[in-house]
Amino acid sequence: MKYVIVGVGVAGIEAAKEIRKKDADGDILMISADAQIHSRCMLHKFIAGERDEKGLDFTELDFFEKYRIHWKSGVRTKKVCPEEKEIILDDGEHVSYDKLLLANGADSFIPPVGDLRKASNVYGLRNLTDAQAIVKEAEGAEEVLVIGSGLVGLDAAYGLLERGKKLTIVEMVEQILPVQLDAHGAAAYQELFEKAGVRFVLGRRASEAVCEEDGRIHKVKLDNGEELACDLVIVAAGVRPAISCLEGSGIDCERGITVDSHMRTSQEDIYAAGDITGRSGIWPNAADQGQIAGRNMCGMEVEYTDTFAIKNTINFFGLVTLCVGRIKPEEGDDIRMKEDRTQYKRIILKDGKVEGVLLQGNIANAGTWQYLIKNQIDVSRIEKDIFDINFADFYHISERGEYMWA
Amino acid sequence: MRRIIVECDKCDGCKNCSAACMQAHRETDGTIYDLDLTDPKNESRNYILKDAQGRYKPLFCRHCDEPECVKSCMSGALTKDPESGHVFYDETRCGSCFMCVMNCPFGVLKPDRVSKSRVIKCDFCVNAGGEPSCVLSCPKKAIHVEEV
After folding, report:
1. Which of A17, A45, A365 should one mutate to test binding to chain B, selecting the residue with the greatest count of B CBs within 10 A?
2. In the CATH scheme, what is the homologous superfamily, with its name and number, of domain A311-405?
């Protein structure tokens, strides 16, 4: 059996490990545009100079030897041909497969504003190559403009602050981290970044960006007419599944590749996992999808059921935050809050169930909240302060000594 | 694999296990008699929780068969050792994202109090010969190690 996996992100790597566990003799070939294995969640550490390329590797030592996997790196997949059961790479090679996993992730989305897509000093932050280019470009740059104040935008800013750059962040919403946090939680991070020298322009969007003769953008105009000078622009406006190589393949796509609960695509023997499915942008879910795809590729029948993905942790300047479930309050919510010098906590309750949790400053032992939220557990019967609810209230132990939820 | 088996009915909440854990992982030399319980650097990896009825429910890392913490680790710091079955944490690889804290369904993990850059996680006292200090210290025999 020949397994081909496109992509060496967490979904691809986890799939390969599962396949090797289940099939000791199968051929496993991984193909990637990435020349180096790296955790995208740590690119800011590379930009900051805290880690080198090797320090971003999240796999075990000698991973490819240990799992007997062939790896062809630095090539893109150009075309997928289900009829011929092969893929065509951009170096012209045709690679045949018995089972194929598409785990080639997503690409940064650069909005079609002015010449953002054309200019040579505009970058997304998705791959190690982006981070490398940003570091290089930053050498000669003084003023950096970041468009978008989500986790990627702040990651980029955090890294570049370490390099002593002057940073401005533009965000179209009136607060930073609008997907993850409420205004109060966001203000705490805004203050920390401002203390470190970042300027925020909130509630504004970039409306004009003209490429000058040197092919670069030197200023970006906002919708209120303000002009921001910049030597380097980082666009953190989300990602789009990397599905351009699927044209003409007959693989059904919507936002990303459509998959069933077994991670199968619409074409036989082709599976997909991770960001390319457009289903979840978070590491643990991509890992899970990869593992499940891998098992199914080996002939097992395993379903991806733990699909809950509205969850994040944030850590900048040592201020940690956990946010799970719904962030925006709605009518009829029962909102509980607690705040002191060291922490801010907010829980959204509805009909006795926890729908959203935001913990900032202290996230110790907070893992149970995700379980309560995603399984819609009724907590109204528990006679405790809501913030004191923990696993003790659901405590059960299996015969093998594992914890289980009662 | 060897797992710490908990019999919560035997627990009387004395927290000897927590003190033993702090002692086993302290940075300074010394004995349990001079362990500084108020030093934020001394943190226990186990917890005695109470339910709404006031009953003690000991919370110890299970070194799960399918560990959610490992699945959520984006740096490779958390790994399940194929030989012992235990989940180990390599502080030098950790990216301090704390997705493991979010993903442990039982709430066993937490960031360290002082630097918020490390995860406080049971290591089965591997540096002390793999015999967990908490188990040795329990006067009620509410925890013991068993091959499962």
Report:
1. A365
2. FAD/NAD-linked reductase, C-terminal dimerisation domain (3.30.390.30)
As a CATH number, domain B63-121 is 3.30.70.20
Contact B106 A363 (CB under 8 A): no
The C-alpha torsion from A327 through A330 and A335 to A340, rounded to 10°, is: 40
Q: Which CATH number fits domain A2-107+239-297: 2.40.128.630, 3.90.850.10, 3.50.50.60, 3.40.640.10?
A: 3.50.50.60
Please determine, for the modelled complex, whether the ipTM score is greater than 0.95: yes
Instruction: State the sign of the Cα–Cα–Cα–Cα dihedral B43, B49, B50, B52.
Output: positive
B57, A395: Cβ pair inside 8 Å? yes
Residue B19 has a CB neighbour count (10 Å cut-off) of 18
For B51, which of A366, A371, A393 is closest by C-beta distance? A393
List, as ranges, residues 273-292 from A with C-beta within 8 Å of B. Answer: 282-284, 287-288, 291
The nearest CA of chain B is from the CA of A322 a distance in Å of 7
Q: Which fold has domain B1-60+129-148?
A: Alpha-Beta Plaits (3.30.70)
What digits encode the pLDDT tens for the residues B77-115? Answer: 999 999 999 999 999 999 999 999 999 999 999 999 999
Fold exhibited by the domain A122-235: FAD/NAD(P)-binding domain (3.50.50)
pLDDT tens per residue, range A90-138: 999 999 999 999 999 999 999 999 999 999 999 999 999 999 999 999 9
Please give the full DSSP string across A261-302, using - where no structure is assigned: TT-B-SSTTEEE-GGGGTS--SHHHHHHHHHHHHHHHTT---
